[in-house]
Amino acid sequence: MKIKRKRTKIDGIELSDKVVIINRVAKVVKGGRRFSFNALSVVGDSDGHVGVGFGKANDVPDAIDKSKEDAKKNVYKININKNTIPHEVIGQFKSAKVIMKPAAPGTGIIAGASVRAVIEKAGISDILTKSQGSRNPINIVKATLDGLLQLRSLKETAEAREVQISKLWE
After folding, report:
1. pLDDT digit string (tens) for 155-167?
2. Does the structural domain 78-158 have CATH classification 3.30.230.10?
3. What predicted TM-score, i.e. pTM, was given to this entire model?
4. Is the pLDDT of residue 1 over 50?
5. Helix or strand (DSSP H, E) at 152
């Protein structure tokens, strides 16, 4: 059975979503335990746009909807170079660290589940990753997004250094 992902458009961008994790949280009150849920979602267009969102509610569907809406408000443009990343980068968030390296065509996505969700929605198909430190999916996803936002193209690097692109290798 194949699950169809819901797609929406934001400013001309068609986004698909993926739920990374759903947590049940218990609050102990006088009458017993009260359960609520939180969800972490990733949205992207598989063409360099990706967003991450977090939502909390008393029911699972409401928490998922809130996380998707939050993700749509936080969509970023990522620099991609021929289905991989332009250079090696390390993303950090709190104690989570994600190391990402460009890979040769045909390598695929070598990553854990939390990192894979962000990478796939960004449209990267060849990458090597390693997550270190925290195993919390929320921190890992945010560390991955931090690393992707650090990526710079050759043109941006040349402009920042005020040199021509051909001079970058000398």
Report:
1. 888 888 888 888 7
2. yes
3. 0.88
4. no
5. none
